[in-house]
Write a structure and sequence with these properties.
The chain has 308 residues and is of the alpha/beta class. It folds into 2 domains: 14-136 and 289-305, Rossmann fold (3-Layer(aba) Sandwich); 139-286, Rossmann fold, CATH 3.40.50.1370. Helices cover 40% and strands 13% of the residues. The protein contains 12 helices and 9 strands. The protein has helices at residues 19-37, 60-71, 92-99, 113-121, 137-151, 167-179, 195-198, 211-215, 235-241, 249-254, 275-278, 285-305; strands at 49-54, 75-80, 105-109, 127-129, 158-162, 182-186, 205-207, 220-223, 260-263. The longest helix is centred in the C-terminal third of the chain and has 21 residues, at 285-305. The two termini are 18 Å apart. 48% of the residues are buried. The protein binds phosphoric acid mono(formamide)ester and norvaline (NVA). Residues 131, 166-168, 224-225, 228-229, 264 line the site of norvaline (NVA).
Amino acid sequence: MPNTNKPLRHFLQFSDLSRDELDYLFERTRWIKQQFKSYQKYWPLVDRTLVMIFEKASTRTRLSFEAGMHQLGGSAIYLNTRDSQLGRGEPVEDAAQVISRMSDIVMIRTFEQAIIERFAANSRVPVINGLTNEYHPCQILADIFTFVEHRGPIQGKTVAWIGDSNNMCNTWLQAAKLLDFKVRVSTPPGYEIEAALAGEAGAHFQTFADPMEAARGADLVTTDVWTSMGFEAENEERMRDFADWQVDADMMKVAAPNAVFMHCLPAHRGEEVSAEVIDGPQSVVWDEAENRLHVQKALMEFLLLGRI
Ligand code: CP
Ligand code: NVA
């Protein structure tokens, strides 16, 4: 049952959490991960139900939310556009009213951010963004947690973003502002950052025409697919436009000597990243993927139970 004593909180974009709440969440993540690794049962969400709505494909997001909810003692239900009324034009507002009366928390992966905002505005329970065209906040929670595990506090550090100004890029830029680190961004001409989504360049991010310049001295080098879900019609054009925006061994050489490489996955070796880099010693992509599980368990605990 929804906890009516607690103000309703959503996680629709990274900036929905304060810096203090993020610090708390990472602390909980460490503890929850430790419990999981030592086979300790931790069931704070017994009888709670997560509904997961997918309008786009997923491996990691579905698995980490579904497994995570079970591991917290609750249950998870998967809905997709194909075999629910969502794909047949039922208004988002109506779906939100109904789904949120039968569940305790909802995760949505969809197209425009406006869809998830409309859903949240009509929901009785917390709503989590599992990726929209504009943002992918759960992934950045995992990425930052992974960086901290490998290299310590991210405050004051430099992240290089190489490639598309997509949902991942926008979310990195929000996170940089909140957590006080810098992002050096290089996107091909025509794929520049939209200030309305990511803020204006300044103290927390700078843009570079040359991807090698963006990578110079970075503590973390990261990229993503050239064509995100929903943009498949542009694929051929993007293959040409992004050809010079590959993270390869030469690029990792200009980064800081102990730089790590991250990718939210799925990756295309030979496109946005060379096999040598993603399968090489600086890559932390498997820890990054695993940490989706742990950060999202902490997130669900926080949204449902508050600070405990
Ligand atoms: N990184 C990520 O969100 O992966 P999926 O698309 O497999 O969920
Ligand atoms: N930017 C990618 C991320 C996939 C996890 C996409 O939106 O398809």
